Amino acid sequence: MRMSSFDLLSPNMQKKIWEMRWEEFTPIQDKAIPAIIETDDDIIILSGTASGKTEAAFLPILTLIEDTAKQSLKVLYVSPLKALINNQFERIESLCKDIGIPIHKWHGDVLQSKKKKFILNPAGILQITPESIESLFINRTSMIPHIFNKLDFIVIDEIHSFLDVERGIQLRSLLARIEKVINKRPRYIGLSATIDNFEFVKQWVNFRNTDRVRIIHEKGYDKELLYHLMHFQRIEANKKPIELYEDIRELTREAKAIIFCNSREEVEYSTVLLNRLAQKEGEGETYYPHHSSIDKKERKFVEKTIAESTSPKSVIATSSLELGIDIGSIDIVIQVDSTYTVSSLRQRLGRSGRKQGSSSMLQLYSTMEDSLVQSLAVMELVLEKWVEPSQGYKQPFDILFHQIISMCQQYNGIKRSQLIQEIKSNDAFHDLDIKDINELLNYMIEREILEQLPVVQELIIGVEGERILRSREFYSVFMTREQYDVFSGTKQIGTIDKSPFINIKDRIILAGKLWEIYDIDSKRNKIYVSKASQGDPPKYSGDGGKIHQRIGEKMMEIICSDNSFEYIDEKAADCLKEIRIPYHYYEVTPQQRVIWRKKDELVFETYTGTTIFQTLMWMLRTKGVDVKTVDGVGRIKITMPPEEDILKVLDDIKNSNWCPEDVMKGVLEREKFVSKYSFYLPERLRDKMHIANEVDIENTISYLDSYTFRLIVL
Questions:
Q1: Is 454 helix (H, G, I), strand (E, B) or coil?
Q2: How far apart are the C-alpha atoms of 349 and 359, rounded to whole Å?
Q3: Residue 99 contacts by C-beta under 8 Å, 6 or more apart in sequence?
Q4: What are 576-610's pLDDT values in tens digits?
């Protein structure tokens, strides 16, 4: 007879469960425990937020390592966020209590004395970010075998957050390098609430043997979801109506909420306005901002304040609180204007309803016509349980550039043939062409990023490479703008992007407070501020994202249909009715796409994904079409008299034999793929990255084949 999940656990883990007074395992725990204990497979644990994924991983892992983990490091726990490490530390430590398994944190905020203590006796569990693993390779190279030689498990929390970005390539490379050093492959355990495209995930974890990667998926644990959408139409382009904030205030007066905005500027503005509304009612500070440009001490204070508050307090955030940072029980999640992805909305709505027996509550707001339709499309796809499939970060020459510098530092000189072998055997770069790798190496040598020693024929880091390596920004591979650190006295508040338009006496909002700039120290990149009575949020770059073609298709389906939505208010219903009028009048169907003739321009409403409408825009340019602008939902404005020729051009595009180099002729320099290290690449490899990540010829031609295109004169 098959043993129960409980019976498979060690006596110490069984005792821990009794102490925690668990009456039963969650479904995902019941599935994951035997999978981890009874097999040697890599395991991806996929289940809804608050379903107990952490315990599903660590109860069986601790059972397997408890006899040896006191003497050596057995588990490497990788997290995308330092704050998530801090949150999960206590949760995992409580499981280790009484069995003597140590748990250690390693990131930029951990004291050097604690790091030295761990280095002397690496044991138990190490929680770390990718950037700190990079730091170990750079600064403690000789200690890597000592630290990791007994490693049995690599646990990657929120694994979905790594799959499609450059940071995931860096992590995969670093983990492969650890395996190389210790001549051993630990088991991988991934945790996520939002993953699709299981085959891609298996490839990412173990491309050599995907049969040894198991997906443990529990669909049925999702909480009951209560949801509603309200529309408040913007009068001015950059200002949301005060009635929106009054409604949020009414909704959160007696509730603890996370209010998600799509930009840091919006977080700052909303915090000030909502606190003013609360103060008018005689309340103190009730709303707290949280985003990546607020100082980490301030963010930690906000997290602690919200978690410990017994009165209704709310946090206003960007995606900085999308992942599992613990801020206590949340009554309601609010989303102001649509997220770019279904996956993001699913993550966010999972932050509420964590109390046993409670429902998840979601309040959506839209303030523009496009946002209303996109909010409906994303919400409908959430209800259909659809999520964007992972695509990966393709042709990662920028991260290879970074890792070549790191590898040369690790080996303190390495023969070119050996380095190429290291690259080709690395999980992150195994599918790159050797010709391209050699081109990159030659380019790095030419620019003194690498130096080839003449006698021993080894590659070492060159003068320019040392400059890159010694930068404090080397450990991270994601792109950040040059910034000013903002201080009030000696206290750092946060950062703002550097700009020639920032001047003394400017008034800004930062960390939810109003400030006036009284000094700018350009040499040390510091700004000093004092309290003010008014201000505007600083401008930040980088807030935005791509949409999947399924979202564009769903938007068109909604516009062309007569479907009503029970969860939207009267204003939203009226706005949707107005949006639909021209489509219904001209009897447009979801299988059609419209090019509207408006005065002296054509407006091509593509209703597809970002990569497809970008590719189409570049194809149009190569055919001589004057593309004026393209917006975030794929509305391409073009000038092309006589207008009837546009349909012939689309037909010509569809029937042409395209190669990527043809498409690149229509790409403006400012539209090219950009990342932190892309500027260090030879132009051909940078273009190759652009083609791999931004151009989709096959699906663009399929799009042109799939729809009928109509020119309608208004």
A1: coil
A2: 10
A3: 12, 16, 62, 66
A4: 999 999 999 999 999 999 999 988 889 999 999 99
